[in-house]
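Annotated sample (chain length 494).
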Amino acid sequence: MLYVSTRNADEKVTASQAVLKGLAENGGLFVPEQIPALDVPMDKLKNMTYQETAYEVMKLFLTDYTEEELKNCIRNAYDTKFDTSEIAPLVNVQDAYYLELFHGATIAFKDMALSILPHLLITAARKNQVKNDIVILTATSGDTGKAALAGFAEVEGTKIIVFYPKDGVSPIQQKQMVTQKGDNTFVVGIRGNFDQAQTGVKQMFSDPVLAKEMGTTGYQFSSANSINIGRLVPQIVYYVYAYAKMLKSGAIEKGETVNVAVPTGNFGNILAAFYAKNMGVPLGKLLCASNENKVLYDFFTTGTYDKNREFILTSSPSMDILISSNLERLIYRIAGNNAHKNQELMKSLQETGAYTISGEMKEQLASFYGNYASEKETAEVIREIYQETGYIMDTHTAVAAAVYKKYQKETGDTARTVIVSTASPYKFTRSVMTAIDETYDSRPDFELVDELEVLSKVKVPQAIEEIRTAPVLHETVCEVDQMQSVVKQFLNIK
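Output written by the structure step:
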C-alpha cells in the first residue's frame, strides 16, 4: 500500500514514510492509493478484542510494518492507560448507542490514536534509518494537545511542541496542557484562534529554510495532528469495532445498516467513518454535526466551502474550527483522485477563503448529512437526556446528539445509530453542569467536578484528579507571528 499526496500525483511514499513526514510537500496530505476491503468477516470480528480488531484493520493500511512491529505498537498503546478493558465501550441510551471514546489517559477521543502514534512513529524512524530527533509540531483546539503530550512525554528521540489558542480552550483543557511533565515537552498559548495556530504550524512544515536549519541541528518535523495518516488509520478501528460489538450484542442483524453521528471540527473523525464504510462496514448515513461554527454544514448544503465568517467561541471548543484540514482528503477523492483539481480548490481556499465544488462532485457526498446545533440546543440536549435517563454527556457529544434528533425528525430514518462520544463530561465540567442547572455557574471548577461525580455516579477520572494540585510548568504565550521564533528558541536553533 503506497500513499500519495493530495496535491501532487508524483509524490508517493510507504506507510511508514507517510507517518514520519506527517505532511506531504506543498502542504498536501497523504492518502492511501486505494481503500482496502476488510478481509475478516463480521462473524469473526464480533468475537475479537479491541486490540485484535485494531490489528486486522491497521495491517491493511500499514503494509510495510511487520506483523510483530504492528502488534507491538498496538499492545503498547491499548493497555492499562485505558480505564476499561473494552477500550471503547458502547452504551445504549434512549434509542441510540453512545460510543465512548474517552476512557484513555486524557479523557478524550484523541487518546484512541495518540496512544499508538508515538510507537508507529518511532518504529517508522528505525525502519527508515532516521538519525535525527523527531520534533512533533502540533496545533490544538483543546484535546489533541494533551493527548499528544501524554503520548510523547519522555519518548526517547522525540520532542513535542504544542500551540493552543490562549483563550479558546476550556479551563480543564488548559490546565491539563500547562501542567504536562517531561523535558521534551513544550506548550505555547497563542494570542489568536485555532485556525491561526494550525496555519502557523502548516507554514513551518512547508518552510524549506527552516527545514534546512532543523536538519543541521539534528531535528526534523513530524505531526501529531489528524493531518498525519498515523492518526487517521487508528480511528477507523473503532467504527469497525462498534459495528462488530452491536452485532454480537444482538442490537443489529448481520448486514444491517448503522448510521453514525460525529461531532466534527477538523473532519478527521468522520473521515475515518467514511473510510470504514468504504472498507465494507455496513454504515449508512454519516451525520456531520457542527456547532455554531457551521462551515461544514454550509458546505454539505451548498457545495461551497467558505471560511469568511465570524469565528465563534462556543462551549464545544474542540470544534471551533473554520478550516477543516481533513476535508481535503475527501475533496481529493470526490475529484476523482485528481491532485491537480484538488490543488486548484485548495489554492482558492488559501487566496480567497472559499471554493465551490462541481455538481458532479457534490453528488458523491450522498453518504453525508450535515447539520448543526446552537449553544442553546446543545445545553438543552445535555439537560433533557440527563433528566430522562441519568446519563451525562459532554458538550461535543451533545452537538452530535442534537443533530441526530434533527436528522430523525427531518427524514424519519429509524436505522440504528451510533453517536460518537468524543470527550468525558469532566473535561468540560462548567459547561455541562450549567446546562443541567444554571445556578452551578457561580461555583469553582473543582467543586463542580465533585458535584458531577455525585450526579453522574461516575468516578472522577485520574486525569482530573492529577491536575487539581499540579503546578503550572508551561507559561509561554506568544503572538501568531512569533510562533517560528518560539520553536527555534526551544530547539536552540540560532
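Annotation: The two ends are 40 Å apart (CA to CA).
Annotation: The longest strand covers residues 158-165.
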